[in-house]
Amino acid sequence: TGPETVTPTGAPTGAPKQAKGQQGEYLTTSAGARLYDTDHSLKAGERGPTLLQDHHLREKVMHFDHERIPERVVHARGYGAHGVFVGYGSAANVCKAAFLGDGVETPVFVRFSTVLGSRGSADTVRDTRGFATKFYTQEGNFDLVGNNIPVFFIQDGIKFPDVIHAGKPHPDREIPQAQSAHDTFWDFVSTHTEATHHVMWNMSDRGIPRSYRTMEGFGVHTFRLVNEAGETALAKFHWKPKLGVHSLVWEEAQMISGLDPDFHRRDLADAIESGAYPQWELGVQVLPDTPRQTFEGIDLLDPTKIVPEELAPVQPIGMLTLNRNPMNYFAETEQVAFHLGNLVPGIDVTDDPLFQARLFSYLDTQLTRLAGPNFNQIPINRPHAPVNDMFRDGFHQHAVHAGVAPYKPNTLDGGNPFEARPEDRPFVEVAQPLAKSVKVRQSPTSFSDHYTQPRLFWQSLSPVEKEHVVRAFTFELGKCYEQAVKERQLMVLANVDPVLCKEVAQGLGLPAPSATGRPRRVVPSPALSQVGQTWPTD
Ligand code: HEM
């Protein structure tokens, strides 16, 4: 690797902060030839012109020209840290994953993010926050790709491009950078009332965390756990910060955005550097894996619903400690590739339609973002378990595979040393009694209650928290130009709570509508699907 220091992932914690890349005794080209001068191009005479034969000039500028890669299509702004996860062993009765075993230490990399702003946006905007954890377990990588809000805007991943298009800056002016304060976002959420629960959390203090260190995290979806006996349970993952949950008030967030747009990343990096290592306890709500996959009337496949902790307490199963800052932002935080399909034996997917779409989306986007199919060979993504995937070639292939027979079974390369064992099967084949043999393009009726849980959330807030929610709705809706959008969102709020609706309406100077109780959702139109594609003429 020449005179540069390349640090593999999983370097021992406390790796020297000063380990620098460019500290060799002399500079070289990327091909290792010693350089005499990197400050002057080669010219035909003192005042030029510059000669094309100056390979170093061309290589140096060429490499610089290609330093940028596409930012993530969502969650572009993020900040990461290394750490360790220690299992308590308390999950053994429901989950056989080895990294949850008593005292088992697993290296991790965590990336926190905002969802909608671009890479250069401010930290303290009102938005959902990503909380993605890569566990480098001995059984392969397990990625828990969650958020700081326990529910999501939509119930089906096919709507993800739509909700993100509505929330991202308008295509004409690219304003605004942050969520809300624009017509498309409120247009979308007021016409898709399944978003109401998530929006209530966004408009509450949860939408502007004080610090990443004081944020909860949620796996959001219901997962399926499997124990050694092959018994299954359904589960929801929770991260509980040791420092408690704290938020900024809006005025603080506004001022901080201006004074220090890097507030959250600075806070995390400084805390780790000073030895104040942030910690989160991982917990699970364990729910019976019944044929209907519901619990107390809640459809567990609906990602817009929580299971109240009073009904299913969160049971602690391990502790996460972040104790090492990345050495290089690009190499680690930018190139890390999380994927929900990175599962280990004992943790499995469910039929939640949002979950299912995500299983496609992450691999697919990383194919472009990280330029080719070999991104798991990038140091930050490399598993700490042996890899024998029989994948070959492709852009950015770094492995030099030995042998002639990348298939199995074979009789030329000595068969395959990694014989499959039934217990390693990543996906349990649990019978799905609800699955029918007909094809359906619609939401189940059990997904159609859009207001009970947002109301529960509102009712759980203290008076001052309620006041913050009212102010947030009033401020954000006040930024809409379209009167109809404001009025439609007020109708949504009327279905959540009359006081909430009345106070926001007052702030907007509009009449408060009455509750209808009706959800608004996309109704499939069979006629549409039969119409051929037409292209706009201009
Ligand atoms: C990125 C969470 C829904 C597509 C992310 C990240 C998080 C996250 C935390 C950032 C990962 C990182 O730090 O690198 C969630 C949660 C969801 C959800 C909790 C709902 C429960 C979806 C859906 C889709 C999707 C439904 C698509 C159908 C993406 C894509 C990225 C991303 C394309 C960028 C990944 C990359 O470039 O590496 N999501 N997401 N997400 N998410 Fe989601």
From TrEMBL:
One of its GO terms (molecular function) is metal ion binding. GO terms for biological process: hydrogen peroxide catabolic process; response to oxidative stress. It catalyses: 2 H2O2 = O2 + 2 H2O. Keywords: Heme, Hydrogen peroxide, Iron, Metal-binding, Oxidoreductase, Peroxidase. Residues 28-416 form the Catalase core domain. Residues 2-16 have a biased composition (Low complexity). The active site is at H75, N147. Heme binds at R72, R111, F160, R358, Y362, R369. There is a cross-link at H339-Y362 (3'-histidyl-3-tyrosine (His-Tyr)). One of its GO terms (cellular component) is cytosol. Its EC number is 1.11.1.6. Its cofactor is heme. Belongs to the catalase family. HPII subfamily. Decomposes hydrogen peroxide into water and oxygen; serves to protect cells from the toxic effects of hydrogen peroxide. This is Catalase. The chain holds residues 57 to 594 of 754 of the full protein.
